[in-house]
Amino acid sequence: MTSEDKNNNKSNSKLKEFLKKNSASVILAIVLFIVFAWFSIKIKTNEFHFENEKTQLITKYETERDSLQIKHLEFASTVFSWSVRSELLGNNTENLNQLLTVFIKKSGADLVQLINPENNVILLSSDKKFEGKAYNQKLDFEITTPIIKREPSLVRIITPVMGYNSVIGVLVVEVKTGE
């Protein structure tokens, strides 16, 4: 036997003696290490689940908020169409312009347009560059109730303005969405 083998045997025997004398401490240290590793893994999985749940809740909240905003705007557009009807029947375009300005400020809409159903021309618009031009979107002028059209980044609420016997105008309210 060489001196290295003797040293290895001595160190092995010292290690065995230490383990025999401190077996309770060694077992507790191993148990502590296992518990620490288990809790570390548990924390990581909980963090992962928390992030997934958080993302789902945020998405659900934003979807519901957008849905409520659209419902609110649909109702506001219907009520606004009654005021527009009154002013159209009285031929008060100055009051219509004021109503349009107030509606755009208070409702959160991005664009409001009033279209003549007879010739598809924009009578009034919150963006004045569109006034007097043909409306470039396809509309069904036979509608009798508000319609919501969803596009990838835009929601369009189309509300008829009813006269005594027919549609005298179509109110289009556009809202940009974050989708």
Task: Write structural notes for this entry.
It is built from three helices and five strands, in the order αααβββββ. The chain is α+β, with helices and mostly antiparallel strands and 179 residues long. Strands 2-1-5-4-3 form a five-stranded antiparallel beta sheet, with helices on one face. β3 and β4 form a beta hairpin. The longest helix has 67 residues. The mean pLDDT is 85.
Number of helices: 3
The overall strand count is 5
Q: Cα-atom Rg, whole angstroms?
A: 36 Å
> How is the biggest beta sheet arranged?
5 strands, antiparallel
Could you please say which CATH topology applies here?
A: Beta-Lactamase
Helix content: 55-70%
Shape: rod-shaped
Q: Look at the structure and give the CATH class.
A: Alpha Beta
One letter per element, helices H and strands E, the order comes to HHHEEEEE
N- to C-terminal separation?
79 Å
Set out the fold topology.
Blueprint: H1 3-21, H2 23-89, H3 93-107, E1 111-116, E2 121-125, E3 147-151, E4 154-162, E5 167-176
Antiparallel strand pairs: 1-2, 1-5, 3-4, 4-5
Task: Describe the structure in brief.
This protein has 179 residues and is of the alpha+beta class.
List keywords for this structure.
five-stranded antiparallel β-sheet, 56% helix, Beta-Lactamase, alpha+beta, 179 residues, 3 helices, single chain
